[in-house]
Write a structure and sequence with these properties.
Shape: globular
Distance between the termini: 60 Å
Number of strands: 22
Largest sheet: 7 strands, mixed
CATH topology of the largest domain: FAD/NAD(P)-binding domain
Number of domains: 3
CATH superfamily of the largest domain: FAD/NAD(P)-binding domain
Bound molecules: flavin-adenine dinucleotide
Length: 471
């Protein structure tokens, strides 16, 4: 780490502001390409939202809570008798913190290995491609002159009107990753990926969970048929869904929290998780200093090569338009710095998968059926249920299905959507197939090991042509 007085300007080829998956991956790739790279991060630990308070801790808790739930509810079905099963929440949270700790330290190790210079503090644009580092007391601690600046400052939880966050009873995903006790009644506002994942965690640990969603469906970014099936499965697990529910107020009260919903009785609960989306993070960045404008949703606008309107300054990840996903940020980081160094760099936005890590998982890539209908693109559809898959039967995970959408005339795969066990891993095959411009016939004729869940993908591809074998 570098500590120096502000007047000693330091030179680097590239300075990256923000060490989330977008920023730290871009920094490493740029170093691999021979640039002298610096990365400024305001938090003591590297890895951004994803590693510290997002993807990784949530997946650690999903795994632990699933094991707990399975032990209590499913082991007997396998002929395993587990008596006096108890939850040690403190240990579960400590394990999660350990996973985060190991991974964030891993990024620090990678920075050392690739000779990326790390600055701790807030990165602030200071005119041209100069960046100032500001310490926790608000004092400038370093000044960097770089040839290129990459903004990767990510996002923070959105705070809708009427929500009174108190960091305890009414909180965001960050607090919901560390509650010291299992809430008796948890109200989740927003039925997107984060709300459903963390709602599932606390449901499995024993909470009554009510999910309020303004829209008339859950998982608005996913294929509607698959989302509907996911809702049915999650409802069976005890998540109570109230769709079309407009929350007008959520606040702490004497015994817990109160949530008011337009046209409905207010809900009293002991905790509220607000998961209605995230907003780009540009606070304190000094964008006005270099004349970078934001769009109506507060995102930095960039061209096809991630260049902002200010010369030499680029932006990637959650702070620019597009799905707010760690792997999208990483792809952009790599493409951006490759383009700076080699002249080439590209992200294929048609093949960015999204995964919801509930049980079972929900995953998708490419166009949803609704999008194809709206665009008037002719398609054929093949589906295959996990109920008819041998491995799913052996696992005891027969819920859900694979759905493949292929162009009616060319058979090119346009979208693949899965709800089912390990859908997040299964989707990788679909992503690779689409990257290579595969047809459903290509997938259908690819040999899949037996017995695997992936055979359901092959069968769905066969089903596009009406010739699934096992149903
Ligand atoms: C609970 C939760 C679960 C999630 N699960 C998943 C998942 O399973 N899969 C998935 O793909 N995505 C998931 N996400 C989303 C994912 O975390 C983000 O899409 C991803 O982290 C975006 O990466 P980024 O590099 O753009 O920004 P971030 O990860 O937000 O990193 C930005 C970094 O910049 C720093 N920073 C900001 N401003 C400054 C400044 N001026 N100076 C210095 N540093 C600054 C911040 O401290 C932060 O470390 C989840 C998010 C949450 C909240």
């Amino acid at each position: 780490m570098v500590a120096m007085r502000a007047h000693e300007a330091k030179r680097h080829d590239l300075v990256v502001i923000g060490a989330g998956p977008g920023g730290y991956v871009a920094a490493i790739r740029a170093a691999q390409l021979g640039l002298d790279v610096a990365c400024i991060e305001k938090e003591p630990r590297l890895g951004g939202t994803c590693l510290r308070i997002g993807c990784i801790p949530s997946k650690a808790l999903l795994e632990s809570s699933e094991l707990f739930y399975e032990t209590v509810h499913a082991l007997a079905g396998h002929g395993i008798v587990a008596k006096d099963v108890q939850l040690d929440l403190k240990a579960m949270l400590a394990r999660k913190d350990g996973v985060v700790d190991a991974l964030t330290k891993g990024i620090a190790g990678l920075f050392k290995k690739h000779k990326v210079t790390r600055y701790e503090g807030l990165g602030r644009l200071a005119g041209g491609t100069q960046v100032e580092v500001v310490d926790a007391q608000g004092q400038p601690s370093a000044r960097i002159e770089a040839q290129h600046v990459l903004i990767a400052t990510g996002s923070t939880s959105a705070a809708p009107k009427g929500i009174e966050f108190d960091g305890d009873r009414v909180g965001t995903s960050t607090e919901a990753l560390s509650w010291p006790t299992v809430p008796q009644h948890l109200v989740v506002i927003g039925a997107g990926a984060i709300g459903l994942e963390l709602g599932s965690v606390w449901r499995r640990l024993g909470a009554q969970v009510t999910v309020l969603e303004y829209l008339d469906r859950i998982l608005p970014a996913n294929d509607a048929e698959i989302a509907k099936e996911a809702q049915k499965i999650l409802a069976k697990q005890g998540l109570e869904f109230r769709l079309g529910a407009k929350v007008t107020l959520a606040r702490k009260n004497q015994d817990g929290a109160l949530v008011e919903i337009e046209g409905q009785e207010p809900l009293r609960c002991d905790r509220v998780l607000v998961s209605v989306g995230r907003k780009p993070h540009t606070d304190g960045l000094g964008l006005d200093k270099v004349g970078i404008a934001l769009d109506a949703r507060g995102r930095i606008t960039v061209d096809a090569h991630f260049a902002t309107s200010a010369k030499g300054i680029y932006a990637i990840g959650d702070v620019i338009p597009g799905p707010m996903l760690a792997h999208k940020a990483e792809e952009e980081g790599v493409a951006c710095v490759e383009r700076i160094v080699t002249g080439y760099g590209h992200v294929n936005y048609d093949t960015i998968p999204n995964v919801v890590y509930t049980h079972p998982e929900v995953a998708g890539v490419g166009k949803t059926e609704e999008e194809l209908v709206a665009a008037g693109i002719p398609y054929r559809k093949g589906s295959f249920p996990f109920l008819a898959n041998g491995r799913a039967k052996a696992l005891g995970a027969t819920e859900g299905k694979v759905k493949i959408l292929a162009h009616k005339d060319t058979d090119r795969i346009l979208g693949v959507h899965i709800v089912g066990a390990r859908a997040g891993d299964l989707i990788a095959e679909a992503v690779a197939a689409m990257e290579f411009g595969a047809s459903s016939e290509d997938l259908a004729r690819t040999c899949h090991a037996h017995p695997t869940l992936a055979e359901a993908v092959k069968e769905a591809a066969l089903a596009v042509d009406g010739r699934a074998l096992h149903i």
